Automatic annotation (TrEMBL):
GO biological process: translation
Family: Belongs to the bacterial ribosomal protein bS20 family.
Keywords: Ribonucleoprotein, Ribosomal protein, RNA-binding, rRNA-binding
Gene3D superfamilies per UniProt: Ribosomal protein S20
Sample GO molecular function, one term: small ribosomal subunit rRNA binding
Region (Disordered): 1-23
One Pfam family recorded for the sequence: Ribosomal_S20p
Any one GO cellular component localisation term in the record: small ribosomal subunit
Family annotation (SUPFAM superfamilies): Ribosomal protein S20 (SSF46992)
Protein's name in the database: Small ribosomal subunit protein bS20
Keyword rRNA-binding set for record: yes
């Protein structure tokens, strides 16, 4: 348990930050799943549209250091390649 006032405050802050970061991470995963499901559905225009929205979400999450910028780039690259490879 935190013994100093500073440590108690840090513990409170970390709880709030953890909740916020978890919601952003969840939003990221949902955006990626939406693109993947659009790809499986086979509708290229819908997949391209959801990819554009997902790219925005991925960039936002990476800017806030929730995920590393290289991980964000990897997600965007693989999703874009999958959409491009659609027949």
């Amino acid at each position: 348990m935190a013994n100093t006032a500073q440590a108690r405050k840090r513990a409170r802050q970390s709880v709030v930050r953890n909740q916020h970061n978890s919601s952003l991470r969840s939003m990221l995963r949902t955006a990626i799943k939406r693109v993947r499901s659009a790809i499986v559905a086979g509708d290229k225009s819908s997949a391209a549209e959801t990819l554009q929205k997902a790219t925005s979400v991925i960039d936002r999450v990476a800017d806030k250091n929730i995920i590393h910028k290289n991980k964000a780039a990897r997600h965007k690259s693989r999703l874009a390649a999958a959409v491009k490879a659609m027949a």
